Amino acid sequence: MAGNVSKVQYQVLTPWAEADPVPLKGISPRLVSLAGKKIGIFRNFKQAARPMAVVVSQKLRERFPGIETTIYESDGGNVNEIETEFKDKFVEWTKGIDAAVALVGN
Q: Residue 68: beta bridge partners?
């Protein structure tokens, strides 16, 4: 039996699939100033998020004169906006802002 052991061969497989790597992308750098910037306020579908977005928008404009705010209203429940039929609208909104605030109401 010992003579047969040396003739045994094994094929080693890896569980990792070959895939095109996606380069890592860090978060955007912080804005030095909000002067002249357009701040997007993303609010989710929950009831409290709507009035919160309005107040945050007002407070930002009071504290940083000269900025502009825009509110994106997501009405989809617990789904990433990018995965809904509103994907194109959301992507277009993100292209027009310099920074974003996300609000989640109760």
A: 38
**Domains of the chain: which residue ranges?**
35-106
- pLDDT tens-digit profile, the chain (106 residues): 555 566 778 888 777 777 777 787 788 888 999 989 999 999 998 889 999 999 999 999 999 989 999 999 998 777 788 888 989 999 999 999 999 999 888 7
Question: What CATH class has 35-106?
Answer: alpha beta
Q: Round to whole Å and give the CA distance between 27 and 36.
A: 21
pTM of the full structure: 0.71
